[in-house]
Fold this protein.
Amino acid sequence: MPHAWHVRVDGMRNGKRVTGAGLLVDPRHVLTCAHVVTGCSGVRVSFVQADRPDLQDLPADLACAGPWRKPGDRGDVAVLTLAAEVAIKPARLSLRVPAWGDFAAHGFPPDAGPFGATMRIRTGSAHGIGEWLHVEGATGHAEMPRAGFSGAGVYNEVTGHVFGIISDASTSPDRRTGRMIPLAWVRRYWEDLDDLLELGWLSRETRRKLRSILRRIGTDADLTELVETEFHPATAPPEFWSVWDAARYVAEELYDDDRLGRFLEALILRASGGPAVTALRVWMDRHLEAPAPHPGVTSVVVRLDTKTKGGYELGFSHFIDGKPYPGGAPATVTRKRFRREVEAALNGLMAKIARAGRDDPMIEFLLPRSLILSEHVDEWYACRERDIPMTAYRVVVRDVVRLGNYDYILRDQWKSRSRRLRDGAKLEKADCSRLDPEEFYRRLLSNREACVVVFSETPGDAVLTKGLDAGVPVMLWPRASCADATPGECPYGSLDTLALLVDTAALDGLPERVRRLRVDPGHARCGPRLTLLWDDPTRIPDPPTFVED
């Protein structure tokens, strides 16, 4: 029989016979509703469609039950254990309920006889209400949700896949509705169900071993906070019922390739030790690649876009371990208020970095080209009230024009040159006093490996524009000229000396090197006035909601 896994469940409660339904989920376990068997004695199950006398009226013990106590309670789930395995193919289980689907359920209402009846139903909504989905009778003058269907598997008649169990029915005689508990919720009350599912992120046996270990892990950690701190998911994670519940959420709802390993490493740091932690380490060594270190840069992003009708749009966001986290809606500001708004917002922006468990962020200013040269943001304050200068942090500027989704050619040039940045990048020295913008542009186009430009002094607008249009991702220039300095007076002395400070073999450390130059007393003349354009195309915030004219 194709659906011999249907089960009738019988018991006695307060001297009265109780009958419900269930389904065989593995050779020894039957899933049903808690309200069918709670308080019952002599619980027995019958496989009415198996057409085998030896599989009728089998004794069953209550293995576990959810927290259900009265009608309407959550957790109306129970699992029965048989004395021996039965030679019946268990139900095919699926976690994904098709929206607005048509299903069937086989139950045992009092007037249907010992073999029960089939009810055809459909989901009444694509969205759950709490842990339930509403169902309704699919045809008039036929079976509808009522007593005797509780615990019946909700299944597709063609494929046989079971998606949940009927839990209750409307008490109104005018309504043909009820509710089902999807298997995705059933497994929260009976975690062993996961051992029977094909989940994709680990094989059944490997998952079973991991779940067995995590069941023994001792920790007082707030698991929701652990997941938020480690992964910063876009939506707040739920309150987890167990360590396994948290691990399952990370594996199924998040997308990082090393997400499970990172979660387990974070869990070990918060665990109380013991044999379970040792067993977990062994399991990880056998089944997981070592978790990757946190990739990318953590930074506060200050973005200023030119509005089409004058003024600017100022927005704030973050990159945490190289991943973008958008901020609130941008605000309209004037050029005069730009600095004041940024300095007022920085403390709150740093708070999110701290909550993510990170520190020492970079501060990235995404500016229109006209402001890259004129707004000396590294001379501002990170906290004016405490006289903490912006140079306490690595401060870089970026070209907001290249981020526009309407400038595909600019972005293409930028990405193309940036791909070479860490593969043997070449440095181009540019003496601004003898630099023709067009000649400079042709020079860059002929040398695609030139990814870093060091200027002898502040470049003019035309020269900077040519460098940006050519896609150069890193540029450095002093805002105080050393041309007239006597030997030994200026720490740089010449363009060649300044260029020596840029190590193209360690470009990721350049923002920190420039930060130190800005605060080093030995570089009092030029150091505090250095601009670093550090424009990494791997960190692209959300596009603006408007386009420049």
In short: Residues 213 and 276 are 6 Å apart (CA to CA). The mean pLDDT is 87. The first helix runs from residue 34 to 37.
